[in-house]
């Protein structure tokens, strides 16, 4: 799809949690916390589609619906995203509302999550030495040989 710039009425809210495991202590004085990393960013984008110079509210709505219907990761740019390390999102759902008596004003809410494309390289069996530890490499070779015996 072609590039799309959100209407100037768009507002985005960002929420992100740490992945924390809490373990109760025997002394009943709080918990032990293990911090593992961060979850994805939860992003809520609220848009008010109104008549603009180059398109109607309905045309803006149709463009946003087209983007929401994509079954893919969407690359994003702009300081509001890249400043948080977000370079791609997935639109999880869309909510289109109506305002009584205002057909040329269409509120839309997109609920999105940040996404990181994952590149996986599958190596040929003769190039399987990708473990730094010799012990892990031996275990991997044993598993690989056992799989080949079953075939």
Features:
3 helices, two-stranded antiparallel ribbon, alpha+beta, single chain, 7 strands
Largest sheet: number of strands, sense, barrel closure: 5 strands, antiparallel
Strand content: 25-35%
- How many individual helices? 3
- Straight-line N-to-C gap: 44 Å
- The oligomeric state of the chains shown is single chain
| Unreliable runs | none
Q: How much is the average pLDDT?
A: 85
**What's the order of the H and E elements?**
EEEEHEHEEH
Instruction: Tell me, briefly, the overall form.
Output: extended
Q: Give the % helix.
A: 10-25%
> What class, by secondary structure content?
alpha+beta
Number of strands: 7
**Spatial arrangement of strands, main beta sheet:** 1-4-7-6-5
- Rg over CA atoms: 24 Å
In short:
The protein is an alpha+beta fold and 151 residues long. It is 22% helix and 32% strand.
What does this protein structure show overall?
With 151 residues, the chain is of the alpha+beta class. A 5-stranded antiparallel sheet has the order 1-4-7-6-5. The chain starts with 10 loop residues before the first strand and ends with a helix. The model has no long low-confidence stretch (mean pLDDT 85).
Write the layout of secondary structure elements.
Blueprint: E1 11-15, E2 18-24, E3 31-38, E4 42-49, H1 57-68, E5 74-75, H2 79-82, E6 88-96, E7 106-114, H3 134-150
Antiparallel strand pairs: 1-4, 2-3, 4-7, 5-6, 6-7
């Amino acid at each position: 799809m072609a590039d799309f710039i959100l209407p100037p009425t768009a507002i985005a809210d960002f929420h992100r949690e740490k992945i924390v495991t809490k373990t109760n202590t025997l002394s009943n004085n709080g918990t032990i916390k293990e911090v593992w990393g961060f979850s994805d960013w939860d992003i809520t984008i609220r848009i008010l589609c109104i008549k603009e110079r180059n398109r109607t509210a309905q045309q803006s709505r149709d463009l946003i619906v087209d983007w929401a219907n994509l079954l893919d990761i969407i690359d994003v740019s702009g300081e509001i995203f890249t400043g948080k390390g977000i370079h791609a999102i997935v639109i999880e759902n869309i909510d289109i509302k109506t305002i009584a008596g205002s057909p040329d004003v269409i509120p839309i809410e997109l609920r999105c999550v940040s996404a990181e494309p994952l590149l996986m390289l599958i190596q040929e069996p003769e190039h399987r030495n990708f473990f730094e530890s010799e012990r892990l490499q031996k275990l991997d070779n044993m598993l690989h040989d056992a799989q080949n015996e079953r075939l």
